[in-house]
């Protein structure tokens, strides 16, 4: 179910929209429009749906329009054309056209925001900062402070409740910002590069914490980032923007495997594939392996015996080989070194590499009792060398 629906949205900064919008329709570039009308095109013809529980990452270089689009979702940026719909119960509210009372309701009950600069009030304690939004809602003091304490405990800052923001580190202050957003219990959370000012180690830790919080709270999150590895790590959907336009929107793995344009291809060329690719994207499918008398050849010395796709046995010149049904709980250190691991087709590449580190053999990718393909060393090298994506030049 869509919680946020952005439909044909244009955002223009300047006083000559009547001149600028027709120029946009004629295909003029941002630079051309700036020279002709003096207006800046912030977002052009954006279309995207964000479903309940998704983390949608708006990705792009500085000036691409990602923060501009994000701020339209809570009405901070005015929309020149199009609709920005946000769910309010069983109806959708157009943030571009709602009155002040409705906008205030949406900001206090449906949409929260976390800024890059934390935006904490230095004269308030950590607890009071977290409770501030609830105070604006009119919630009684004891109730709002209790809710704020619960959120501080969730982000492991309950021992710092009575401190002032300047007594906290940057990472701790960002946790306060997260707690303040989550305590509002809104359906939608907007995050504008919230971790970009932090050291890499702290940034990675907070990304992990956000993922864990999301598993528990299941919010709908729109997250702005210029860091592709961050986007691939936390996003369930990624929209890449260039020059005010969304040029590709897809699942993280598809962004890496099938970049739509040369710009996206360059963007993903240096990303870490361990964080996004899964086994089925890397494997050699069974139907691409050599078959002889119903037996599948893995190499000159190793074979699979299948029956209508079902794995019967794995064997080599010495006889039948040991197989291990892998799960996240499998103790790899205690598994036989020469075992062949049976793994799910959607296994993460990072997990597959970890298995290969401990085992000497290839892996067989399974879906139920069906054998789909195999993972061998050359499949991993293919991905690590950046050979895993390609773009159809005919498109």
From TrEMBL:
GO CC term, one of those recorded = ATP-binding cassette (ABC) transporter complex, substrate-binding subunit-containing
**Could you mention a single GO BP entry for this protein?**
response to osmotic stress
- At the top level, the lineage of the source is Bacteria
Every ABC transporter domain range: 21-268
Q: Does the keyword ATP-binding apply?
A: yes
Q: What does the UniProt keyword field contain? A: ATP-binding, Nucleotide-binding, Transport
Record GO terms (molecular function) = ATP binding; ATP hydrolysis activity; choline transmembrane transporter activity
The record's annotation in PROSITE patterns points to: ABC_TRANSPORTER_1 (PS00211), ABC_TRANSPORTER_2 (PS50893)
Q: To which protein family does this belong? A: Belongs to the ABC transporter superfamily.
Its name, as the record gives it, is: Choline ABC transporter, ATP-binding protein
